[in-house]
Amino acid sequence: MILNSILQIYVSFDRYCKSHVNHRSPSQRAVAIKKIPRAFAAHTLAKRSLREVRILRELRHENIIAVLDMFTAEGTHGRDIYMVMDLMETDLHQIIHSRQTLVEQHFQYFLYQLLRGLKYLHSVGIVHRDLKPSNLLVNGDCLLRIADFGMARSTEQTRVSTDKFLTQYVATRWYRAPELLFSMVDYDTKVDMWSAGCIFAEMIMRRQIFPGKDGVSQVKMLVYYLGTPEERVMSQITSDIVLGWIESCGKKEPLPWQAILPKASAHALEVIDKLLQISPWNRSNAEDVLSLPYLSAYHDPAFEPTCPPK
């Protein structure tokens, strides 16, 4: 097993798991261990744990974190699950909110890798659903990998009305697409594209673009900046409460992106406009955004794989 004779050093603890850095001899690779304590103690947590394990075991892409090994420890009766992954030094949240100087090339390279990973992920038929800077791991040479697939779903399981767990999950409200905030009937991979747009804007601004303090303020903030949703969107909203929030804003026209992100270049604003559309039908997919001029220095379809047909 990959874990023979390693020293585990506690690094962090979050709501769902513990992560450890593991140092081995110089000739061996350093890895990270994600511990999911009491993984089967509750039905919801068990589903989340098994989902992440299943998805990550199947995915193979440079910009998606890979599971190298998986095990349970002696004496735990299989209650705790340990997932062994490549060691990544930090995450995009830490970088964005540090004092480190970030330039346009950083924004382009991070966005390119995120979209490259999403192009592959969506071709597999998987929606991540919890994209945020802290779930984008980064190492010293700026390699970015998408992580934390506990909220992921296949595109066949994305009907909001039957997915109450996600609609009640508020920790990532700032990155949640209108389809989810508005309780629309259905959603698909475009929710990840919205999150990517929020993350990209946060890189440029060095702060969150839509930091609502609760569900009401989040919805009203989107309407204030992006305008009143079109009728096709309004007709898909299943919550009378949300409809009331939107209608209470009155008729709003969208603000120009240049006013919202005055420091962004013209090509960067084009990307933002493609990603941060309230209507999912007007929002671009990963493949289309990769082909925009902003990413021309990196874009090469030959090196942006999709999942081969089975």
What does this structure look like?
It comes from Nippostrongylus brasiliensis (Rat hookworm). GO terms for molecular function: ATP binding; MAP kinase activity. Its EC number is 2.7.11.24. Residues 1-295 form the Protein kinase domain. It catalyses: L-threonyl-[protein] + ATP = O-phospho-L-threonyl-[protein] + ADP + H(+); L-seryl-[protein] + ATP = O-phospho-L-seryl-[protein] + ADP + H(+). By secondary structure, this protein is an alpha+beta fold. It folds into two domains: 7-86, 2-Layer Sandwich (Phosphorylase Kinase, domain 1); 90-303, Transferase(Phosphotransferase), domain 1, CATH 1.10.510.10. Helix content is 35%, strand content 14%. It contains twelve helices and ten strands. It has helices at 43-58, 92-96, 104-123, 164-167, 178-181, 190-205, 215-226, 231-234, 240-247, 257-260, 266-275, 286-290; strands at 7-13, 18-23, 31-36, 67-71, 81-86, 90-91, 126-127, 136-138, 144-146, 153-154. A five-stranded antiparallel sheet has the order 1-2-3-5-4, covered by helices on one side. A three-stranded antiparallel sheet has the order 6-8-9. Helix 3 (104-123) packs antiparallel against helix 6 (190-205) and helix 6 (190-205) packs antiparallel against helix 11. It is globular. The model is unreliable at 1-21, 23-27 and 164-168 (pLDDT under 50).
Short description:
The protein is α+β, with helices and mostly antiparallel strands. It has twelve helices and ten strands. InterPro entries: Kinase-like_dom_sf, MAP_kinase_CS, MAPK, Prot_kinase_dom, Ser/Thr_kinase_AS.
